[in-house]
């Protein structure tokens, strides 16, 4: 599946076909970088970030892990 996909195609496939995985990865990156947007300007402590990341990774299961892995690879 990945072997014949070009770099640009991979990103397009990821964003259009694996939107759930794409959104999950973006939320993990936002947590990891302590990104704040809109009215949410509260900076999280490292302990809060770690707890939120642990919660996000509990969402990974046998059904969705391949999508998250392939999506991460292309991003």
Structure description:
The chain is an all-alpha fold and 75 residues long. It has a domain at 19-35 and 42-74. 63% of the residues lie in helices and 0% in strands. It has four helices and no strands. Helix 2 runs antiparallel to helix 3 (46-57) and helix 2 packs across helix 4. It is globular and about 45 Å long. The two termini are 16 Å apart.
Q: What is the percent of helical residues?
A: 55-70%
What count of helical segments does DSSP give?
4
Strand count:
0
Low-confidence stretches: none
How large, in whole angstroms, is the Cα Rg? 14 Å
| Tertiary shape | globular
Average pLDDT rating: 81
Determine the strand fraction and express it as a percent band: under 5%
Biggest beta-sheet profile:
none
First-last Cα distance: 16 Å
Order of helices and strands: HHHH
Keywords for this entry:
75 residues, mainly alpha, 0% strand
Produce the secondary structure layout:
Elements: H1 7-17, H2 19-32, H3 46-57, H4 65-74
Helix pairs in contact: 2-3, 2-4
Brief overview:
It is built from four helices and no strands.
